[in-house]
Design brief:
With 417 residues, the protein is an alpha/beta fold. Helix content is 32%, strand content 18%. It is built from 13 helices and 14 strands.
């Protein structure tokens, strides 16, 4: 069976550094930090009092007020990013067969704020169960894909992947595989997350996973820097329209890039920590390269997981050196989480978009907030510190890893017809 080619024909994003794809890309290449003191609630008693929040967002600018009330924030971000991607692709204008268009979404946590609010209301009462009838439909992680499919009448494959911070890359890989196997003509894929709330921040603080640099939020996310002290929590969503090449070509679609392959692996090591030698990270990159039928030397840019944690950044660097050997020193490497923070289940989606736009525009976004080299990290590697770099980017690889040892990589190439 001959596998079909898969291309990207639409993009959508709502991020801490821009509420559209164009704003997001401009924020990336200009090294903009999305971190600031939290505005959604009083964080004064929390160890971490800042995050990368969505800014200047009014859901009623995108979704009817009555309908928006039925959606947790993570679903709102899903709908907004999918709306931009669908409009960008002009897919529905071509009168497609909606039975062959699906939605595969990713979210690591789902409706955390909805759960928090309902629990708080119940336990502050007299024990009488008074729950919002939309409590369960707002909270469950799969509902984002359901809402997108309902909005556009899409009756193809429809589900949500949950693999912590690897969730949306898993969604992209699943969408890619279904299309190249001929099971769908196009799929709306990506991910969204909205965990900047008391339970989200408190839980990650209890794990000692977050930076506590409250005196300088904008410089707190410091991937590969000696003084990194944890990740900065972000929120938002990213959407991609993946489409079978001949289907896209027939309708005259704009094509951003081609998806070549995806890799997945497990660390089988620890609940939250990566394998110290980067074995899982190594294996997923190798799997992606094999799937794409590429030699490591074909890669120009790696958008790393790079969360700014003491252990994670070292392990991923070791994995890159194992996979790429001497070619590692010819790569551009960057962590866009230094700007957006860590969007958890949505991270893979917005970082895949960063790779697609790097390939399209031949610009590598920077890793900002680098001040001091870490002697445990090979700083002969080009981490694209502090300033974007222009170079030919024919092929890019995006890494996304999650608690539980879930590792994913996806590879995109410049579209060449």
């Amino acid at each position: 069976m001959e596998l079909k080619r898969v291309v990207v024909t639409g993009l959508g994003a709502i991020t801490p550094i821009g509420n559209t794809v164009q704003e997001y890309w401009e924020g990336l290449i200009n090294g903009k930090s999305g971190a600031a003191l939290i505005k959604q609630y009083d964080a004064s008693k929390f160890k971490t009092q800042f995050a990368c929040e969505i800014k200047d967002f009014n859901v009623e600018d995108y979704i009817d007020r009555k309908e928006a009330r039925k959606l947790d924030q993570f679903s709102q971000y899903a709908m907004v990013s999918a709306k931009e991607a669908m409009a960008d692709s002009e897919l529905m204008e071509s009168n497609p067969n909606v039975d062959r268009i699906g939605v595969i979404w990713g979210s690591g946590i789902g409706g955390l704020k909805t759960f928090q609010d309902e629990a708080q209301n119940f336990f502050s009462g007299d024990g009488t169960p008074r729950f919002n009838p939309f409590f369960i439909p707002k909270m469950i992680a799969d509902i984002a894909a359901g809402h997108i499919s309902i909005e556009y009448g899409l009756r193809g494959p429809n589900y949500v992947t949950v693999s912590a911070c690897a969730s949306s890359t898993n969604a992209i890989i699943d969408a890619f595989n279904l299309i190249r196997l001929g099971k769908a003509d196009a799929i709306v894929t990506g991910g969204s997350e909205a965990a900047v709330n008391e339970m989200g921040m408190g839980g990650f603080n209890a794990l000692k996973a977050l930076s506590t640099r409250n005196d300088s939020p904008e410089t707190a996310s410091r991937p590969f820097d000696l003084d990194r002290d944890g990740f900065v929590l972000g929120e938002g969503g990213g959407a991609l329209i993946l489409e079978e090449y001949e289907h896209a070509k027939k309708r005259g679609a704009k094509i951003y890039a081609e998806v070549l392959g995806g890799g997945m692996s497990g660390d089988a090591y620890h609940m939250t920590a990566p394998h110290p030698e980067g074995i899982g990270a190594r294996n997923t990159m190798i799997a992606a390269l094999e799937d794409a039928e590429l030699d490591p030397s074909a890669i120009d840019y790696v958008n790393v997981h790079g969360t700014s944690t003491p252990l994670g950044d070292i392990a991923e660097t070791k994995a890159i050196l194992q996979v790429f050997g001497e070619h590692a020193y010819k790569l551009n490497i960057s962590s866009t989480k230094s700007m957006t923070g860590h969007l958890l289940g949505a991270a893979g989606a917005i970082e895949a978009i960063a790779c697609i736009l790097a390939v399209k525009n031949d610009i590598v976004p920077p890793t900002i907030n680098h001040f001091t080299d870490d002697p445990e990290i090979d700083n002969k590697l080009n981490f694209t510190f502090n300033k974007a770099q222009h170079r030919t980017v024919d092929v890019a690889l995006s890494n996304t890893f999650g608690f539980g040892g879930h590792n994913t990589s996806v590879i995109v190439r410049k579209y060449k017809g």
